[in-house]
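May I ask for a sample protein chain and its fold as tokens?
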Amino acid sequence: MRDAAATSPPPAASLADQFERHDGKTSGFDYLRIVLAVAVLVWHSYGLTYGREAIDAAMAGLAVSIPVALILPMFFALSGFLVTSSLYRANSIKVYLVFRGLRLFPALTVEVLLAVFLLGPIFTSLALGEYFSHRDFFLYFLNIVGLIRYELPGLFEDNVYPRVVNGSLWTVPYELECYIYLVVLSLMGVFRSRYAVLAAFVAVTLLVVLMGFTSGRGVVIALKDLLIGSPEVEPNLQQATGARVEIPRILVLCFLAGALLYAWRDRVPFHPGLAAAALVASAALLASPQLYFYAPLPVAYLTVWLGLNDLPRATLLRKGDYSYGIYLYAFPLQQVVSASGWAEGAFLLHAALSLAMVSIFAAFSWHVVEKPCLRLKTHFL
């Protein structure tokens, strides 16, 4: 017993200790990505099965509204921490942008092409000639560059949530916006000083809170609206899938909170007591519309603490990272399940069938698209 105790590593004192001990490759982040991606799928199945009124009723209780409100902020906090790590390691802004591009766009492009040329012709209510010549057919390709369009001509018109092919893509412009902010902050020299990162985070938070910047649609979405206008289905998309109206702005803040924790990683303790306190604080702040925008920092700490725990990797995690594929393919395949009537009125069956189908496409996305594209990173190092 003494020998075992003597050879076991001491507890990590800081986030940096834990991060560097495992070379930034803890399994906790892998588990977290999968759990959050599946949680989004399950929640969407509930909404796509029962509709808006059922979502409103479920969100009226804290037992549902708090976990649901945590999902996307945790995703963005996780991304902020790890993407900032990537920025610190990159030897130039160009390399950082190439890495981000290889991670985001190839898989997104393949998903869009499959939706347009496979899903569309099978499920459209229009004649194929009309489908392939429709304005929405051509506009849908803008999804490849993050200018999100939700409709393909004649698809899913009779579903509980009609006409939307991939509702999950509404978060892509905000992810791109976060990447842009990191580049701007880096060019300004903010990341040379942890205090400058802290000042930037406080300034952005105060801007959001004091100026009531809750309905801002973000720079990427504003660009799309300027070029092609906003589709009819978009304004109510987030609400129809259970997202709060303030969510877009808090996602950006959570990303920046993750970046802040990375900048201060050697000063922030890695401690389960702090994680428990962060969980309580996150729940309390997210439950209050007046305090909602103060939640990003505790949400980010909780997320990073969970991610930095290194648990034994399940076989699934050793095979690859399927979370992005789940995110990309879940909503379209859930709409297929809804359109088929296979799980009408039974959301758990809807979720199970959707997950089974999505798993196949997520594996395809990782092994055929994402992993080969990520290997190209070595050419830029």
User: Anything to note?
Assistant: Residues 26-380 form one domain. Residues 6 and 217 are 55 Å apart (CA to CA). Confidence is low (pLDDT under 50) at residues 1-6, 239-243.
